[in-house]
Specification:
The complex is a heterodimer of chains A (331) and B (282). Helices cover 38% and strands 27% of the residues of chain A. Among the domains of chain A are: 136 residues, P-loop containing nucleotide triphosphate hydrolases (Rossmann fold, 3-Layer(aba) Sandwich); 66 residues, Alpha-Beta Plaits, CATH 3.30.70. In chain A, the strands form 3 sheets. Chain A has a 6-stranded mixed β-sheet with strand order 6-7-8-3-9-10, with helices on both faces. Chain A has a 4-stranded antiparallel β-sheet with strand order 2-1-4-5, with helices on one face. Chain A is built from 12 helices and 14 strands. By secondary structure, chain B is mostly helical. Classes of the chains: A alpha/beta (331), B mainly alpha (282). Chains A and B meet through strand 6 and helix 4 of A and helix 1 and helix 4 of B.
């Protein structure tokens, strides 16, 4: 027994294992699997699994009550899941140390009103176990536009200013993962633009971000991937190109026979409303898809009045996913 | 890591108490009480010049205990109403979210808050109590036999009640937790008075009311120990059972067993509060 530690230290296979571990790609910033949470009879989260890679910006989308904030709170250990596993930066989220390099801006942001913003940052740096110089704290406040309010008490701050402070708090301990829950809910348009710039700078620095936002435009501009939640489940997830790569083709046609309908179906899923047809084209499409389709339709005796290709926005896609999910079982 | 969290939260809590209006309100109330008592004690000296020295000591001891009861009431009410909002209020307002998302254990956060409140409450009790003893000494020339023990027991009484306040605040709303804690404090004090009346009348059943309530919530037991340390020790030998039923004089010193029970009680209640807080969804 007593010789074991010495033997272990000299064990070459252990060295090799350590080297192997060191050479492995870093674990995901967030990995969660099978998260479930019920509040009384209400199921808030029902089997949610997703991953946020290192340096990746992932948007969490969904209607009110979809379980987005519950999922975020489970990730951070603020809510205990009934089932499921969470790893933050490769460590089980049960251990508080897993959150050492995680920054968080809650949806319900409020900071000690009897402290100054600089003191709030100092408090969070101490709790995170990170030494942050006064200079760095000033810079953090300047980055969110609070440089000239550093000595005022937080109690006198407007909601927007408190949310800006919340962003500084989330970023103060040099995080590798930042979780932002509705970061622009109290901000004016300038503040929103600032947050977008902040997110882009985090992305450039390789900091992973999980962003819950209702502002789809914001998500579309900064996120690499999105996870769409509905009724506590993942309704869809994927990169923006996967989700938005599809295009739509609107056609106004006369004299469409069965053969022409078959030709339309071959191009993609289509819906018909009188003489209006909407064809959803696949993500990977050749440049000749549309002209070939029109030529074939004309050859089949169809009279073509109008052809309008359209890009599907994230908003359209989100509504589409949520509507189709509400009718049937999203699984 | 845990020790740093505890100390950081303790410092934050003391800072909160100092910067919020609580401190100013406490200071005003205390100064008011001290001034009133100074005036009262000087009247005792002037009006009852004909008292024997023994009687004068009895009066001074009783009134000192009465005033210290007022001070301990301010301290316990103050900290109990501070203890409730500090946890439940922070959970309700969302202030706890950002703090608890840090790499900290919830139990460490709770112990830190508790330690900060203990430091604040004890500092208040010691400062105000010493000032009160000074007032009595200056006006009637009486200095309690054991002020250190007495003040320590008053601080312990404050600690007991604020620990209860913390436990309650993990279960019920902030304001309700303060009210329930203070209500229980008052009920135990009354039960203690009832018990001492029972003891004076040799009625065991009634006396047991006091004993049981002192075990369930040790505030009254500690308060009686503190009174014993503030009053003149010769009084009881001279006046005997006549003073035993007074709510502001105490017959016996605290036993070490009771002190140990009070410590265990605080640890148990804090442990329960920790368990409640750890399981709570925020």
């Amino acid at each position: 027994m007593t010789a074991a530690p010495t033997a272990r230290r000299d064990d070459p296979s252990l060295d090799a294992a350590e080297r192997l571990l060191a050479e492995l790609p870093p674990s995901a910033a967030v990995w969660c699997s099978g998260l479930r949470k019920r509040y009384g009879r209400q199921t808030a989260v029902d089997g949610v699994s997703f991953t946020v890679g290192r340096g990746e910006v992932v948007g969490l989308l969904g209607p009110n009550g979809a379980g987005k904030t519950s999922v975020i709170k489970i990730l951070l250990g603020l809510v205990r899941p009934d089932a499921g596993e969470v790893l933050l930066l490769g460590r089980p989220a049960r251990e508080p140390d897993a959150r050492a390099r995680v920054g968080y801006l809650p949806e319900l942001f409020r900071y000690q009103p009897w402290l100054t913003p600089a003191e709030v940052l100092g408090l969070h740096a101490r709790l995170a176990g990170v030494a942050v110089s006064a200079e760095d704290r000033r810079e953090s406040l300047a980055a969110v536009g609070l440089a000239d309010r550093a000595r005022d008490r937080v109690g006198g701050f407007s909601k927007g200013m408190q949310q800006r402070l919340g962003l500084a708090v989330a970023l103060v301990a040099r995080p590798e993962l930042v979780i932002l829950d509705e970061p622009t809910s109290a901000l004016d348009p300038i503040g929103r633009a600032d947050v977008r710039d902040l997110l882009l700078s985090l992305k450039a620095r390789g900091v992973a971000v999980l962003l819950n936002s209702h502002l789809i435009g914001e998500v579309e501009r900064v996120c690499d991937r999105v996870v769409i939640l509905d009724k506590g489940r993942v309704a869809a997830s994927g990169s923006l190109t996967e989700l938005l790569g599809r295009r739509e083709l609107r056609l106004h046609l006369d004299g469409v026979g069965p053969a022409a309908e078959d030709r339309l179906a071959a191009a993609g899923e289509f819906t018909r409303d009188g003489s209006s047809f909407t064809v959803t084209l696949p993500a990977e499409q050749a440049a000749t898809t549309v002209p070939d389709l029109v030529a074939d339709l004309v050859r089949l005796g169809v009279r073509v009045h109008a052809v309008a290709p359209r890009r599907i926005s994230l908003e359209d896609r989100l509504l589409d996913i949520l509507r189709s999910g509400s009718g049937g079982d999203p699984r | 890591m845990t020790a740093r969290t505890v100390l950081t939260l303790a410092a934050l809590t003391v800072q909160e108490a100092a910067r919020r209006r609580v401190l100013r309100a406490l200071a005003v109330l205390t100064i008011l009480l001290l001034a009133l008592s100074a005036w009262g004690f000087s009247r005792i000296d002037a009006e009852f010049g004909s008292l024997t020295s023994g009687e004068a000591r009895l009066v001074a001891s009783t009134v000192l205990n009465l005033v210290l009861f007022g001070l301990s009431l301010i301290a316990t009410l103050g900290t109990a109403f501070l203890a409730g909002p500090t946890l439940a209020g922070e959970i309700e307002s969302g202030m706890a979210l950002a703090v608890l998302a840090r790499p900290v254990r919830r139990s460490a956060v709770l112990v830190g808050k508790w330690l900060g409140l203990v430091i604040f409450g004890s500092a208040f009790v010691v400062l105000a109590g010493l000032a009160q003893c000074g007032v009595v000494w200056a006006t009637v020339g009486y200095w309690p036999p054991d002020p250190v023990v007495g003040l320590a027991l008053l601080a312990a009484q404050t600690t007991v009640l604020l620990t209860l306040g913390l436990l309650l605040s993990t279960v019920i709303s902030p304001m309700a937790s303060g009210i329930v804690a203070v209500g229980l404090f008052g009920a135990t004090w009354i039960a203690g008075v009832v018990g001492s009346v029972g003891a004076a009348l040799d009625n065991e059943g009634v006396a047991r009311v006091g004993t049981v309530s002192r075990m369930l919530l040790p505030t009254d037991g500690l308060w009686r120990g503190a009174m014993n340390a503030f009053q003149d020790p010769t009084l009881l030998t001279r006046f005997g059972a006549d003073v035993a039923e007074s709510p502001f004089l105490s017959e016996a010193q605290l036993t070490l067993t009771y002190l140990a029970w009070a410590c265990l009680w605080v640890a148990l209640v804090l442990g329960l509060a920790g368990m409640g807080f750890r399981r709570r969804d925020l």
